[in-house]
Write a structure and sequence with these properties.
Nuclear Transport Factor 2, Chain: A; mainly beta; six-stranded mixed beta sheet; single chain
């Protein structure tokens, strides 16, 4: 079963095959003086319903179970209770403007397969609390420009295997004191799981 909802004319809008309207009395048409129109087809194999508004807004149900709707103007929805949406197949959301999502509580996103995020402009990620990141496999980070990291507190790095640091240009290390393999046996740092990471 497919459901399509649109708020403006779009070149991506799919065109459904026109359903042959059944004939009277299986086809009922209500035409209102203000321009509202309701068409209900009850002929076997051609069951359908069409509701039209003079502004161009409409809602249509097709014999094969498909449903299409078109909204001219804003489309608002308010739920006093909870909301659950289940889609057995693929889903797509297309927006030509901005999107804002506000949550008063927590948020959890779980993806069983691969996931990718592509941003055409700049990206800012801000956490007002702690942040943890856990990677079970390999991790790669590539930066085409400069990279800066500022840490106000301590910074600890622990590598279980070999550690290689290379630079294609001169390297500068600045510190009030630099200890290499200190004889006092300074303890290393063992990172624990970050917040929200099992």
């Amino acid at each position: 079963m497919a459901t399509e909802t649109y708020t403006k004319e779009s070149p991506d809008r799919p065109e459904f095959d026109e359903t042959p309207e059944s004939k009277y009395p299986q086809n009922q048409v209500w035409q209102m003086a203000g321009g509202m129109r309701l068409v209900i087809g009850e002929e076997e194999g051609k069951e359908s319903m069409k509701l039209y508004h003079p502004s161009g807004t409409y809602m249509e149900m097709f014999p094969d179970g498909k449903m299409a709707s078109m909204t001219i103007g804003e489309n608002k929805q308010y739920n006093k209770g909870g909301t659950t949406m289940t889609v057995d197949e693929n889903g797509d959301v297309h927006m030509t403007g901005h999107q804002k999502i506000t949550m008063g509580g927590g948020s959890h996103i779980e993806v069983s397969g691969d996931a990718g995020i592509v941003v055409g402009g700049s990206t800012v990620l801000t956490s007002l609390g702690d942040m943890g990141m856990s990677v079970k496999g390999n991790m790669y980070m590539g930066v085409d420009g400069d990279m800066n990291m500022n840490v106000s507190g301590n910074m600890n790095t622990l590598v279980g295997g070999k550690n290689y640091v290379g630079s294609g240009a001169p390297m500068t290390v600045q510190a009030t004191q630099l200890n290499l393999n200190p004889s006092d046996g300074a303890s290393g740092y063992t990172p624990g799981p970050g917040p929200g990471i099992a």
